[in-house]
Write a structure and sequence with these properties.
The complex is a heterodimer of chains A (560) and B (231).
Chain A: H1 2-14, H2 17-22, E1 23-26, E2 28-33, E3 50-53, E4 63-72, E5 78-84, E6 87-92, E7 95-100, E8 116-121, E9 129-138, E10 151-157, H3 158-192, H4 197-221, H5 229-254, H6 260-277, H7 281-305, H8 311-327, H9 332-381, H10 384-400, H11 402-422, E11 428-429, H12 430-448, E12 451-457, E13 464-465, H13 469-479, E14 487-497, E15 500-508, H14 521-534, E16 539-545, E17 548-556
Parallel strand pairs in A: 12-14
Antiparallel strand pairs in A: 1-10, 2-3, 2-4, 4-9, 5-8, 5-10, 6-7, 6-9, 11-13, 14-15, 15-17, 16-17
Chain B: E1 2-6, H1 10-24, E2 30-34, H2 37-46, E3 51-54, E4 57-58, E5 61-62, H3 64-72, E6 76-81, H4 87-92, E7 97-100, H5 105-116, E8 128-133, E9 136-141, E10 145-151, E11 154-159, E12 164-167, H6 171-177, E13 182-186, E14 189-192, E15 196-202, E16 206-211, E17 214-218, H7 220-230
Parallel strand pairs in B: 1-2, 1-3, 3-6, 6-7
Antiparallel strand pairs in B: 4-5, 8-9, 10-11, 10-14, 11-12, 13-14, 15-16, 16-17
Classes of the chains: A alpha+beta (560), B alpha/beta (231).
C-alpha cells in the first residue's frame, strides 16, 4: 500500500514515464468469431485467424476469441488489465486465470462483466519467456455499437498495472480539487455582489466541469459493468455540451457585445454538430471541446483588441487548451483534457479576478465620485453669492411687498428641500427633477422680475434621470439668457427609440456669450452625473443653433 | 450728485435706490437704474456721473471690463457684489469701496461718506491704475508711476520710462485710492516716495524733490510732513 502510494505520487510528479516503462499494452492480436475451448490452448495454431490492431477491433454481438503472444521479462508478480465493453474470460497458456461476468453464446446466458478488470498471473505461470494470452468475449449487452476501441489489454507488474488503471482518475482528481476551489471562489464573489452574473456563471461552469471530471473518473475509480457504459458516454457528451455552452455564456457575459445572443446561438449549433455528425463517442466529445475552445479564443481575442480587462488570460487559456488538444486528439479525453480544462478555468478565473479588482476600484471611485457630486451639487446651490443675492433680493421684497417675499421664501424652501432629498441619489424620477427646476425658476423670476417658462413635450415623468441634470441646464439657460430679456422660454423634448431616450433641451441664448470651448463647471457636472448613472453608455452634445442653445442627451431607457 | 446703479436684479436695484435716496436725500441730482452691461457701458461713456454702484456679475457675465472702465473714469465707483472674493481685485484697480451683499444701512452710509469725501478714507489698496487710452482701458502698475500731477479735472501720471498718461479722475479722487507710498507733496502733485532720490530747500519755505529725472515742487504746507516721511 505504502509502495503504491509512493508510486502514485511519483506518477503524479513524473507524468507517465514510470508507467510507460513498467507496463506493456498489447497492440496487435488475432481474432476469430465462434467458440471453442481449444482456442485457449497455447499450442493452438491461430495462423488462419484475422490479424488486427487492438484499437480497430470491432465486436459483433457473438462470442469472439482474441489471441496474442506475450513475452514476460524480469520478476513478477505480473497482472493483466482488461478494459472491455464485453464479458470476458482470460486464459493464460491454456489456464483460465480470470473472468469478467459470464461469457454467453446468447444474450440470456451472458452476465455483463466489469468494464475494467485486473487479473493476476499466477507465479507458477509467469516464468520469463513467451506465453499465449487468449480472451473469450461476448457483447450482447452493449446497447450500442462502438466504432472501435472496445478493448484494451495491458500487461505488466501488478502494482504498475493497478496504477495504470487509476492514472486517468489521478489526473481528473488533481484537476477537480483546483476547479472546485475556483468554483467556490466564484460563488463567494457572486454572494458579495449579487449582480455579478459572470461570477455566478463561472461558479456554475466550475461545478459542471467538476461533475464531468467525476463522471470521467468514475470508470477507473469505481467501475461498472460494461452494459452501463452507454449511460456514462451519454452523460459525458451531455456534460461536454453543457460545459461548452457555459464557457460561451461566461465569456459573452464577461465581455458583453451587442451580438452576444446571436453568437451564443451559433455556438449551441456548433456544439450540436459534432455530437450528431461524429461516429465515435470520443470524436463527438473532442469535437464539442474544440468548438467551445475556438469560440472562447475568438471572443476573448475580440475583447482583447478592445482592451477589456481579463481578455488576455482568457485568450491564453483557450490557446493553451487548443494546443494540448491538437498534440494528442485521441488521448485528449483521457489525459490532456484534465490539464486543458484546469488551465483554461484558471485563466478565466484570473482574468475574472483582474476585472473584478478593477470593478471594485471603479465602484469605490464611483462612491467617492457620488459623494463629491452630492457635495458639488449642494455647494453650487448654496454658494455664498447665490445665497447672498437671494437674501438681498428677499430683503427688497420684504420692504416692497411682504406677500411676494413670502412666495419667494416658499419657492426657495421647496427648492432646498428637494435638493437635499435628491442630492445623494444616483437617479431620480423626472417628475422630481421638473419640480426642482420649476421651484428654481420661481425663485429666479422673483429675483430678476423675468418670466421663465419650462415647456415639455413627449416627456415621461416616471423616467429616471440623474439629479440636477435638467436643473443644471435650466440654471445655465437662465444665467445666460439674452441680456435684458423679460421672458425666457426653455423647452425639453423627449423621444424614444430602440430602448433609448433622447432629451433635447433648447433655450434662447445671449449671442454675445461664445459657445463651445472648454467645458464649464455645469458641463463637467453633467458629464460626471451621466457617467455615474450609465458608465459610458450615453452621449451629450451641445451647440448654438441661431439664437438658441441646444443640448442633446441620449441615454438608455424608455420604450419605442 | 449724479448716481447710477448698475444691477440686473430689479428688487435689489430698487432696494439700493431707496437706501441711497434715504441717506443722500436732496443731494441727489439724478439717480439712474441700469439693468444690463451694455446699457451700463453706454451710460458711463456718455453721461456725466459722480458715483456708480456696480454689480460685478450681470447676466452671468464678468463685469471686470466695466470695472476697469469705471475705475478709469472720473466718477467714483462702489462695487456692490455677493462675490466677496472679488473685493481685493476691485480695490487693487482703485475703486472707492466694496459693498458686500446683503448690505445694511450703516455700511452703505460709510461707503457713501467715503465716496463724497466726507468720511474716513477706505483702506487704500490700489496696485494698478486704469487709464482710458482711446477706446480701450490700459492698466498701469503703480510700481511704474513716479509722480502724479493734478490738472483741472483730470490728472497726469508720470511714469518711470519718462512717458505720461492722462487719468480722468481728479488728484483728490486718486489720492483716496493710492497706497501710503504715494504722498501729496503739493496742491498739484503726488509723488511715489520710494522713487525720491533727494530733496533740496527752495525759497519761500518750499522745497524741491528729485524724482527720477524730474524736479517736483513741495508746497509750503506739505514741506514738513514730506521731509519727515523721507527721513
Amino acid at each position: 500500500m505504502r509502495r503504491a502510494y509512493w508510486a502514485g505520487l511519483a506518477l503524479l510528479l513524473g507524468g507517465c514515464a514510470l508507467q510507460e516503462q513498467s507496463i506493456t499494452p498489447i497492440e496487435t492480436v488475432r481474432y476469430a468469431l465462434g467458440d471453442s475451448l481449444l482456442w485457449s490452448r497455447p499450442d493452438y495454431d491461430d495462423a488462419s485467424w484475422q490479424r488486427s490492431s487492438i484499437w480497430s477491433l470491432s465486436h459483433p454481438a457473438r462470442v469472439l476469441w482474441i489471441r496474442a503472444p506475450v513475452t514476460l521479462t524480469g520478476n513478477g508478480p505480473f497482472a493483466i488489465s482488461v478494459a472491455a465493453l464485453a464479458s470476458h474470460e482470460l486464459w493464460w497458456d491454456g489456464v483460465l486465470i480470470g473472468r469478467g461476468g459470464t461469457v454467453g453464446r446468447v444474450a440470456r446466458d451472458e452476465i455483463p462483466g466489469p468494464i475494467e478488470a485486473e487479473h493476476g498471473i499466477p507465479d507458477s505461470l509467469a516464468r520469463p519467456g513467451i506465453h499465449v494470452l487468449a480472451l473469450r468475449t461476448s457483447t450482447f449487452h452493449q446497447h450500442f455499437t462502438p466504432s472501435s476501441d472496445f478493448l484494451r489489454l495491458v500487461i505488466g507488474r501488478l502494482d504498475a498495472v493497478a496504477l495504470h488503471r487509476r492514472a486517468g482518475a489521478w489526473f481528473a482528481l488533481l484537476s477537480l480539487s483546483g476547479i472546485l476551489l475556483g468554483a467556490v471562489l466564484a460563488f463567494v464573489m457572486f454572494v458579495v455582489n449579487r449582480s455579478d452574473r459572470p461570477s455566478l456563471l463561472l461558479g456554475l461552469l466550475g461545478l459542471t466541469v467538476a461533475t464531468l471530471l467525476i463522471v470521467e473518473a468514475w470508470r477507473p475509480l469505481a467501475g461498472y459493468t460494461y452494459d452501463r457504459h452507454i449511460i456514462r458516454l451519454l452523460a459525458i457528451c451531455t456534460l461536454t455540451w453543457v460545459v461548452g455552452a457555459m464557457l460561451g455564456a461566461f465569456v459573452t457575459s464577461r465581455f458583453p457585445h451587442r451580438r452576444a445572443r446571436v453568437a451564443l446561438l451559433l455556438l449551441l449549433v456548433g456544439l450540436t454538430i459534432p455530437w450528431l455528425a461524429a461516429r465515435s463517442w470520443n470524436d463527438k466529445a473532442v469535437g464539442m471541446h474544440l468548438v467551445a475552445l475556438v469560440f472562447v479564443a475568438v471572443w476573448s481575442a475580440h475583447a482583447a483588441t478592445a482592451r477589456r480587462p481579463g481578455a488576455l488570460p482568457s485568450l491564453a487559456g483557450a490557446m493553451i487548451a487548443m494546443v494540448i488538444l491538437a498534440r494528442d486528439p485521441r488521448g485528449f479525453l483521457d489525459r490532456g483534457y484534465f490539464f486543458a480544462i484546469a488551465g483554461l478555468l484558471s485563466c478565466l478565473l484570473v482574468g475574472h479576478l483582474l476585472g473584478w479588482r478593477r470593478e471594485i476600484a471603479a465602484r469605490e471611485q464611483a462612491v467617492a465620485r457620488s459623494a463629491r457630486l452630492e457635495a458639488e451639487m449642494l455647494k453650487r446651490h448654496l454658494q455664498p453669492h447665490v445665497v447672498m443675492n437671494t437674501l438681498t433680493a428677499l430683503g427688497g421684497w420684504v420692504e416692497e411687498d411682504p406677500a411676494t417675499a413670502v412666495r419667494m421664501i416658499e419657492a426657495l424652501a421647496d427648492e432646498l428641500r428637494l435638493l437635499t432629498r435628491i442630492a445623494d441619489q444616483r437617479l431620480i424620477p423626472l417628475a422630481d427633477e421638473l419640480r426642482l427646476c420649476r421651484a428654481h425658476l420661481e425663485t429666479l423670476a422673483l429675483r430678476r422680475e423675468t418670466q421663465y417658462r419650462l415647456e415639455t413635450e413627449g416627456v415621461d415623468e416616471a423616467e429616471q434621470v440623474p439629479p440636477a441634470l435638467l436643473h443644471t441646464l435650466v440654471e445655465n439657460a437662465a444665467t445666460h439668457r439674452p441680456s435684458g430679456a423679460h421672458e425666457v422660454t426653455m423647452r425639453l423634448q423627449a423621444s424614444r427609440r430602440d430602448g433609448r431616450t433622447r432629451y433635447t433641451f433648447t433655450s434662447a441664448r445671449d449671442p454675445r456669450v461664445p459657445g463651445g470651448g472648454a467645458p464649464g463647471t455645469g458641463t463637467r457636472y453633467l458629464i460626471a452625473r451621466l457617467r455615474e448613472a450609465w458608465g459610458d453608455d450615453w452621449t451629450l452634445d451641445q451647440e448654438a443653433v441661431g439664437d438658441s442653445w441646444r443640448v442633446v442627451i441620449d441615454v438608455p431607457g424608455g420604450t419605442s | 450728485m449724479r448716481i447710477a446703479i448698475v444691477e440686473d436684479e430689479a428688487p435689489i436695484a430698487r432696494r439700493l435706490e431707496r437706501a441711497v435716496r434715504g441717506i443722500l436725500r436732496d443731494r441727489i441730482e439724478a439717480l439712474t437704474l441700469v439693468p444690463t452691461l451694455e446699457s451700463a457701458f453706454e451710460l458711463v461713456r456718455t453721461q456725466p456721473l459722480d458715483l456708480v454702484f456696480l454689480d460685478l456679475n450681470l447676466d452671468g457675465r464678468d463685469g471686470f471690463e466695466l470695472l476697469a472702465e469705471a475705475a478709469a473714469s472720473r466718477f467714483r465707483t462702489i462695487v456692490v457684489s455677493a462675490y466677496e472674493d472679488q473685493a481685493l481685485r476691485a480695490f487693487e484697480i482703485g475703486v472707492t469701496d466694496f459693498l458686500a451683499k446683503p448690505w445694511n444701512e450703516t455700511r452703505l452710509r460709510t461707503a457713501l461718506e467715503r465716496a463724497t469725501g466726507s468720511g474716513d478714507a477706505p483702506p487704500a489698496r490700489a496696485k494698478r491704475l486704469a487709464v482710458r487710452m482711446g477706446t480701450r482701458v490700459e492698466l498701469i502698475e503703480l510700481d511704474h508711476v513716479i509722480a502724479i500731477r493734478g490738472a483741472d479735472d483730470y490728472s497726469e501720471l508720470r511714469l518711470a520710462d519718462g512717458s505720461t498718461r492722462l487719468h480722468e479722475k481728479t488728484l483728490a479722487a486718486l489720492e483716496q485710492v493710492l497706497p501710503p507710498d504715494f504722498m501729496r507733496v503739493h496742491r498739484s502733485w503726488i509723488v511715489s516716495l520710494s522713487r525720491v532720490r533727494g530733496w533740496a530747500p527752495a525759497p519761500g519755505g518750499r522745497a524741491t524733490l528729485e524724482v527720477g529725472e524730474a524736479r517736483i515742487p513741495v508746497g509750503r504746507t506739505f514741506r514738513r510732513a514730506t521731509i519727515e516721511r523721507l527721513r
